[in-house]
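Sanity check record (used in CI):
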Amino acid sequence: MSSTPPPAAFSLARPLPANFARSLPHRHCARRRPALTMVVTAAKPATKPASPCFSSGPCKKRPGYSLVEALSDAPLGRSHRSALGKEKLAEAIRRTKDVLQIPEDYRVAIVPGSDTGAFEMAMWSMLGRRPVDLCYWESFGKGWLVDAINHLRLEAVTDFAAAEYGMLPNFSSVNKDHDVLFTFNGTTSGVRVEEGLEFIKDDRAGLSICDATSAVFAMHVPWGKVDVLTFSWQKVLGGEAAHGMLVLSPRAVERLESYVPPRPLPKIFRMTRRGRLDEGLFEGNVINTVSMMCVEDYLDALKWCDKVGGLDGLVKRSMDNLAVLEAFVDKNDWIDFLAKDPKSRSNTSVCLTLDLPKDKVKKMVEMLAAEEVAYDINSYRDAPPGLRIWCGATVEAADLQALTQWIEWAYNILADK
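Expected output for phosphoserine transaminase:
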């Protein structure tokens, strides 16, 4: 008598072969995975995301991205100091200002070291004249506090910390006469500042210095509230790493030209010459060698922005992505947002908590990766156990919709164990 295999809904221990990793349509996401034995107790969803890339950085490339097409005009092998190289860098700055609607009198520069390099550049060059209020509610913001106290050795630093992950701090005592440092969007907590930046006063005497790397191109920035803003290419636009962007208001320029910090500055942090702003830096005359391949990739992403409606179109795409997860959370009581207040809930780095112990959350992440439906969605190591799903503008809402079905599938398996 011949036997027939059990239906997919039966419990079945199934070891995945060691050579399970294979070439994907999204080769930039492909990686070898260790053999994993898992117990299948529910029918798998019929549809997988077209792209399994939901990492919070580096993030997914734009829809329809082609490496050959994106880099077809890259000046490889040419100097970044050549006329062509300078033209490309100046175009990157100009397009950045256009897409982000940066005021005409603000300066924009391409700097070394990704967002970290840009933010450290501002801290080391500008801080020390006034007391500092440092507001943080996740890991990277706390890192700026550590740098301010332990490395810059600033004496007058007040920290405004959130009571716990998923919350904003109390901003009521932030002093307008102090320099204020904050992250626009907490990449590791899924918590963003509320619209309007009300805690930053229009008549402030100090500078407002903002790390906005996981916010720009997905959230509107009230530029009148910001004196220094930094970001990188590899977040919302899905660009490549290692290059940072530094945006300065006229007030920030005045600080640079009137204040000499009591510390030596490495060459890659210097923005002035003989007491005046180095204007060339903000025209594409970069401090050190950049990757013209990465510059071309960034230009490709900026051109795509125009095709989807500019900044408003980018914000809408990200908000539509968040709406997919909000609908999923609303109908399932075993999953919730780490950020409880919708007004401060990130629409890029969305952090979720699960009604599962830590080891099962880890197992869920492994299962989803093994099924090639989601890569790199584990929560940040310092955050509560859960999922962190990137919802920036390059992600498709249909892929998130498909992913939610797989999350539910994995949860049903793990919750029954």
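Residues 310-330 form the longest helix (21 residues). If this sentence no longer matches the regenerated tokens, the check is flagged for review.
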